[in-house]
Amino acid sequence: MEWIKRIFIAIGILSLICLGGYIVYHVAYAMGETAGYANGYSVGYEAGYSLGKQDGYDSGKKVGYDEGYDSGKKVGYDEGYDSGKKVGYEDGYVEGMEAGLGHGYTLRDPTYKEAVTFLERDKTDKNKYVEGAYGVYVCSHFTRDVCNNAEEAGLRCAFVELRYPEGGHAIIAFDTVDKGLLYFEPQEDRQVELKIGQHYYPRDTYLPPPFDDTIMDILVIW
To answer: Which of 58, 85, 118, 174 is most buried, judged by most C-beta within 10 A?
Structure first.
């Protein structure tokens, strides 16, 4: 029976050795895994951080540069365009004055509607007629002011001199593109009909003036 006892003791010892080895293995494995994880995490973090930082820097630099370039280009273009346009306009205006008619305007003949609308908006007819030794503000002054105002509006307007047997009268005219040459009384903004040999003031509308207003000649000055 002694040998059986020895067998059981040997088996017990072997089992204890195996169990101890198993425990030691798992403890060592856990310790190694933890240490390896920590070391691998640290190394991987540093490598990933360095690489990611570089990639992010390169990408951010490119995107930032592109966006900054586009934004700067737009702002610069807009400001440059506005500034250049202003300077170019002023230089061109001056050159146009010197090379053109001397006043920088480009005049055109209006339509009938444009002529009537201009006269409605123009306030020259609101001025007071004032006579004097040479005329303080008379028909020729009304005509002059309407012609100047029309020129500022870009419209070609004629100074028209009506010659009577004695003296005369001044009015304006537009060579409209749709109805031809039309005459207007600048003191009243009304359209008038002219004919050599007839009175300027129609007798069915006005009382006869204290002078002979028979039209002897019509002088249109552009």
So the answer is: 174
Residues 21 and 68 both lie in one domain: yes
Secondary structure of the chain: what % helix, strand, coil (to 5)? 55, 15, 30
Q: What letter represents residue 168's amino acid?
A: G
Enumerate residues 6+ apart whose C-beta is below 8 A from 160.
Answer: 143, 170, 171, 172, 173, 183, 218, 219, 220, 221
Name the β-bridge partners of 61: none
What sign does the dihedral 192-182-122-158 (CA atoms) show? negative
Rounded to whole angstroms, the Cα distance separating 174 from 139 reads 17
Q: Tell me the residue ranges of DSSP E strands in 75-167.
A: 158-163
Q: In this predicted model, what pLDDT tens digit does every residue of 105-119 receive, in sequence order?
A: 689 999 999 999 999
Say what the pTM is: 0.55
Chain centroid to Cα 61, Å, comes to 34
Q: How many domains does the chain have?
A: 2
pLDDT digits (tens, 9 = 90+) for 57-99: 777 677 767 776 777 666 666 777 777 767 776 666 556 555 5
Considering the domain architecture, whether residues 99 and 6 belong to the same structural domain is answered as: yes
Query: Residue 163 sits in a domain of what CATH number?
Result: 3.30.460.70
